[in-house]
Design a protein that fits this description.
The chain contains seven helices and 22 strands. With 436 residues, it is an alpha+beta fold. The longest helix has 36 residues.
């Protein structure tokens, strides 16, 4: 029974067996129904009115049943029950894909790291003398140039000290003049034997003493002038002023720790960022070829803020984090970079020109290595084994396997097989454009 059931199940898949089987079953059912009627009439004794089929009628019915059974089990498709079904089924549907035309272009290799903007110079302005603030000549947030007046202290006490030092010098100069005249007379009298040699020596020493005193007075005057100049506080550099920490009328001291204001240089400005220590060799080799460009991006990487050049890398690697610090300098003409701002630094270390570049999404990974699909002249998929030099920013640099002008499958690979028919949904402008 199991074998018969299996055979029937297999035959049901044959389109020729189904109608023939239906005919055979119908004839068998008619014969059974006729036999049942004959037996029922014999049971009731109705033999006179009953007409029995002849010998040739029974023979015809039996032959028709045998022919139906033979055609059903040995007819077309009997040697392969599923052949007709397979022939009736259509082929696999084309795989929907998106493609791009392979082109040669320029590939830039960047190293990316997180960094913080730092001012090239920043000073906290403090008073170098004690005094009373007469004037504050700046506003908070103001841009100042080197030499601009910031704060004016009361200069009267320091001017008085200067005048006093100058008066003392005049007094000592007069004494020195008198001593020199006495020395000249002593020299003459000593030669004449009137004055003793001891008096001449005293006159000489007095002149030297008064000359040194005049020199001390000159130094005192210079010191007083310096102290007087300290009462006028000027900007030491060009930059932007921060918050004001003093007001007119305050008393400031030379030993105040907070200072009066801070000035930050914004042009040029520096960016300090880090890279993995494994990239140090690549950066050093690139620096030997010339200056390296650095691009500063916003912290989300969506907006370019400024462009500059790499200034230096640190003289040692941070062993705790395995990174190396680098510093870049930016002109910052539009003041897009601000001290303390967190940014993303992109360091350009190499540029490959006139090379085949495709989206990384087009490169597939298989047991035999990297490969990609291209659209053949017959519209079917052709598998190409690739040699990829490097992958940067979603783009792959292909050294072998693809040529410019070929149509490359960039998305929809999950249904693509070698020699499969393809349905091209769209074509990108160039293969260097990443597929959505």
């Amino acid at each position: 029974m199991g074998t018969t059931a299996k055979l029937i199940a297999d035959r049901m898949g044959d389109p020729f067996a189904v109608p023939l089987g239906a005919v055979w079953v119908g004839l068998a059912a008619s014969l059974i129904a006729a036999t049942a009627r004959v037996c029922l009439r014999l049971w009731h004794g109705e033999t006179k009115r009953m007409r029995m089929p002849g010998r040739w009628g029974f023979a015809a019915i039996i032959l028709l049943m045998a022919a139906g059974a033979y055609l059903t089990w040995h007819g077309p498709g009997a040697s392969n029950p599923t052949a007709a079904k397979k022939e009736a089924q259509p082929g696999p549907a084309p795989a929907p894909v998106r493609t791009a035309i392979v082109e040669k272009k320029t590939l830039s290799v960047f190293l990316t790291g997180l960094g913080t903007v730092q001012p090239t110079n920043m000073v906290t302005v403090r008073s170098r003398v004690d005094g009373h603030i007469e004037k504050v000549a700046f506003e908070e947030g103001q841009m100042v140039r080197a030499g601009d007046l910031l704060v004016q202290l009361d200069a009267a006490p320091f001017r008085a000290v200067l005048d006093q030092a100058m008066a003392k010098r005049s007094q000592d100069q007069a004494s020195l003049l008198n001593a020199r005249q006495d020395l000249q007379r002593a020299v003459v009298l000593t030669k004449q034997g009137i004055d003793a040699q001891q008096l001449l020596d005293q006159r000489t020493a007095q002149v030297a003493q008064l000359a040194a005193l005049v020199q001390a007075d000159e130094a005192a005057i210079e010191s007083a002038r310096v102290q007087l100049n300290y009462t006028t506080i000027r900007s030491p550099l060009t930059g932007r002023i921060g918050f004001r920490l003093i007001d007119p009328g305050n008393i400031v001291h030379a030993n105040d720790q907070n200072g009066m204001l801070t000035i930050t240089q914004l042009q040029p400005i520096s960016l300090v960022f880090t890279l993995p220590e494994q990239k140090l060799t690549e950066v050093r080799e690139a620096l030997l070829k010339g200056p390296l460009a650095v691009t500063a991006l916003s912290s989300d990487g969506k907006k370019q803020l400024a462009e500059g050049t790499l200034s230096l890398f640190d003289n040692q690697v941070d062993s705790s984090s395995g990174t190396i610090r680098l510093k870049a300098s930016f002109p910052n003409e539009n003041n897009a970079l601000w001290p303390g701002l967190s940014v993303i630094a992109r360091l350009l270390v190499a540029t490959f020109r006139d090379v085949v570049v495709v989206p990384d999404s087009a490169v597939q990974r298989g047991p035999n290595g990297l490969y990609a699909y291209v659209v053949g002249s017959d519209g079917r998929a052709e598998l190409r084994h690739l040699k990829v030099a490097r992958v940067e920013d979603g783009n792959a640099l292909v050294e072998q396997g693809l040529s410019a002008g070929e149509q490359l499958v960039v998305s929809g690979h999950y249904r693509v097989q070698p020699r499969a028919r393809l349905q091209i949904l769209g074509t990108a402008e160039r293969a260097g454009t990443k597929a959505d």
